[in-house]
Amino acid sequence: MSGDRIRGAFAGLAVGDAVGWPAGRHRSALHAPWSRRLHRELDAFAEEHRVTTLPVPFALNQPVAPLRIGPSDDAEWLAWTALTIDRPRAEAFGELTDVRARISVATALDNLAKGIEPPASGHDNPHHFDDAAAVRAVAYGAAGRDPTEDAQVTNALDGVLGARAMAAAVAEAVASGQVGRAVEAALAVLPPETAIGHNARAALSAARAAGDPFAAVPALDAEVLDHVYSYAVGAAQTVPVALALAEAAGGELARAVPAAACLAPVADSAPALTGAIAGACGGYAAIPQGWLASARTLAGCCLPELAGRDLIEIADTLTKGIA
Amino acid sequence: MRDRARGCLLGLAAGDALGAPAENLTPAEIRRRWGRLTEIEGGGTDDTEYAIFAASLLVRYGHALTSRDVAEAYRREVVPRAEVPMRGAGFSERGTVEALRRGLEPPLTGLAHQHGWSDGLAMRAAPYGIFCPGDPVEAARLVEQDGLVSASGEGIAGGRAVAAAVAAAMAGAGPRDVVQAALSVIPADSWTARNVLRACESLDRNGTDAVEALHEAVVVRHYPWTDLAPEAVALALAAFLAGDGDVEASVTFGVSLGRDADTIGAIAGAVAGAARGEAGVPARWAGAIGPVTGTCLPVVAGRHVLDTADELAEGL
Fold it and tell me: Where Mg(2+) is bound, by residue (chain B) (predicted)?
């Protein structure tokens, strides 16, 4: 059964990754740079001419396949983590070249190249608070391992706490299938006096009061998001949203993930993290077939060598390692 | 003390105004446009206005200042006037306003937004150093009360370092001892401390012409925002050392670095101005500093840094 739930965690993350509107933006990295330049020019055109018809990623003179619904950055980084999980972390990161990644990871790679080792590589880092490590921690949780050493390469403080919380929630969901216990496990590693700990408790209260994931969307927007900062991947926002929506949905992926995608400011990674927790609770068998077909094949938009790889096969290597 | 206080805040305002047009430019672009940027072209920015606001808190509360007093002052004097557009506010101030509106209290107000490491506290830390001449530890303790409202982690460390540097300079410490005072009040295991050491080493190795080497030592490459305290504080203290404590030499070197050039200039100018006094600030710069407009912080509109310096010095 735990193998089914591990597959569920991976597939759930990929479905959530694919659901969020930024996935199309990330996947358009597979197209020629000029197509994204045109996109930026069309954005400027819309601004100048006050037309509300906003451009979306398109495939002019390009194959359309990359822009079909599918997973993007988070599923690829999860797969990379599962494939390298037995390697010393700084060494595995140090070998990465030609990748696209969050600011925390890009800065950490720069730090490692300068000889700045973990934990300073993740701490002396303007995006130490982002959820890059929280996404990777899904692999650690599924394998029942501590994500801290991995997290500290790229993140610090709330960024590392987000990773611990995700690993704890996924590990408990894989073990018991119960979302309430998964949320408790996450809260146990989130001190209330931190931003992520405060936000997690506030988000859970807001979602409980709303009683339903979709109904909770405006309350979560008011409680957790301040709409001030320019990047939507803060662990102190995305992890609390994921915990609150997974719980409000009773661990049902098909109710939790669409609600997370409604929170546009955190739709890059909150749906993916929500999907990982809910997917682990319900297991692989509970994920809609149509979504599985769309979400399991990696695009290679961040880690080119993973293009075409099957995420579920990669999840199974983790399961065999445990068995 | 009054002379050093006036030198400090004049230096801050001059560095802020001199650096403003160089903000976010590369050192190469600054050289292309100005050669060396030495003449003030326009007014100052948020650095000067927030420093005047911080000084007003010190005049009101003195050494008894607490983070609750600061939060209350924000609620009374900043939040009600922070309607759109809130010009000249960084993410940290804007995030703090939203956190206060949501009913949070310090230190959560400084933790709840992502820019805890902002140089917003370091840019306004000088008055705390003026208020505690020769006592870097007390200056750092006091500025932290302000910082707990809007900053966290490295942002507070940056503020502590600058307040301590000014406190040491107010008592006549030499340039190296001023930097030591800054390092003495922050954890050795901090990004700010590591960056200050990296910048000093780079300066020792490459000399004062090595602007690019300083960038290589402490500037974050993959980040579009430049208001990082560990970076701005390290570059400003390096500028102060490169100028050997002279106001004009320190500030012009500081703004030649680009990045958050107005804040780098303001910090370098405040520390050097405290060390050299009012006469140390070039007369042509002092003449260009008038009352602030309140563009960034309406509550301080019409105030002049020299009046603020006199008020602070009265309590010493």
Answer: 45-47, 260, 262-263
Residue B209 is assigned to a ligand binding site: no
Residue type, A183: V
User: Within chain A, which residues score under 70 in pLDDT?
Assistant: 1, 321-323
Q: Provide the domain limits for residue B87.
A: 2-314
Distance, in angstroms, between B148 CA and closest chain A CA? 13
| Coil vs helix vs strand at B206 | helix
Across the interface, whether the CB atoms of A110 and B222 are under 8 A apart is answered yes
Q: How many CB atoms lie within 10 A of CB A227?
A: 9
Number of domains in chain B: 1
pLDDT at residue B210 in the model: 82
The distance of B271 to chain A (nearest Cα, Å) reads: 25
Predicted-complex ipTM score: 0.93
Domains defined for chain A, CATH in brackets: 2-18+73-322 (1.10.4080.10)
CATH classification at residue B58: 1.10.4080.10
Exposed / middle / buried, residue A295 (Cβ in 10 Å: 0-12, 13-18, 19+) = buried
The pair of structure tokens assigned to B200 is 């000093």
Q: What is the pLDDT, as a whole number, of residue A155?
A: 98
What is the value of pTM for the model shown? Answer: 0.95
Structure tokens at A111: 């730090």
